[in-house]
Amino acid sequence: MSGVELDPVIHAPNRLQICALLVVVSELEFRLLKAQLGVSDSVLSKQIKALEEASYIDVIKRTEHGRQRTWLALNRSGRAAFQKHVQALRQIIEPGAQALNQSEG
Fold first, then answer.
1. What is the number of structural domains in the chain?
2. Residues 5-41: pLDDT tens digits?
3. In the prediction, which pLDDT does 43 show?
4. Is 21 inside any structural domain?
5. What is the mean pLDDT of the chain?
6. Residue 65, in any domain of the structure
7. 62 part of a folded domain
8. What are the angstrom distances between the C-alpha of 6 and each of 3, 45, 64, 89?
9. Sheet (strand 57-64) strand order
10. Among 88, 90, 77, 75, which residue's Cα sits nearest to residue 5?
């Protein structure tokens, strides 16, 4: 499996889940993402910071009903990186999945 490159920023389990959730929506609010992942504010903030530093997500602050809310969006670079990471995972997984299917059939 030479040449398969996983993205170390995306590969961390929480960040992989964040990207997987954000890729199917235009944006998602922090508290909804936190609930989906079942993590604390500090854990989610740390993961968001890593993705933001890699320029994979945009963090948008909005005021709603007098309270500031944080929204997250996977940007073009993040979508491309996630797609490349998923392709690399498929290259790693497919041979084993095919072997499993053959042994079960």
1. 1
2. 999 999 999 999 999 999 999 999 999 999 999 999 9
3. 97
4. yes
5. 93
6. yes
7. yes
8. 10, 23, 38, 7
9. 28-29, 67-74, 57-64
10. 88
Q: Residue 105 carries which DSSP code?
A: -
Angle at 64 between CA 58 and CA 66, to 5 degrees: 125
Q: Among all chains, which residue has been given the structure tokens 């944006």?
A: 27
Q: Tell me, yes or no, if the pTM score tops 0.85.
A: yes
Which comes out higher in pLDDT, residue 102 or 86?
86
Q: Please check the confidence at residue 1 and state whether its pLDDT lies above 90.
A: no
The parent domain of residue 59 ranges over 8-97
- Asked whether 33 and 51 are in contact (CB, 8 A), the reply is no
Alpha helices in 12-75 (DSSP H): 13-22, 30-37, 41-53
**Residue 101 above 90 pLDDT?**
no
Residue 1 counted as domain residue: no
pLDDT value at residue 100: 76
Looking up residue 65, the CATH number of its domain turns out to be 1.10.10.10
**69: Cβ–Cβ under 8 A, 6 or more apart, which residues?**
29, 30, 31, 61, 62, 63
